[in-house]
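ok trying again, last paste got cut off:
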Amino acid sequence: MNSKIRTVFWMVVLALLATATLAWADDIKSRMLARLPGIEALKENGVIGEDKNGFLQFRKDAGDKQALVNAENADRGEIYKAIAAKQGVSAEVVGQRRALQIAELAKPGEWLQNADGKWYQK
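nice, full thing came through this time. structure:
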């Protein structure tokens, strides 16, 4: 696993552990870790990109990968809600902050969406 991706993953996990019950956090952590190779492959192939709200969006036909991306986005949404409740902000704000972090750590060639909604490759 790429060291930047590993760093991002553990930042999310630590945020989870700080905001949620251990069992809930462990469940999400396990699911996200299991999906990570598939998500990385889709990013590398330009099939998905990271949007301005901290979620994955399709850039190309995904074939049978829609469920994988939907599951990842659902878990991200749960994480953002938990962090938002702890910080006293909206889940949307948490997602937007997360999108900025993701953009900083993205690999060259990955698709990202800027705050204006325009897509670009890093």
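cool. The chain has four helices and four strands. The helical segments are 3-19, 22-44, 66-87, 91-105.
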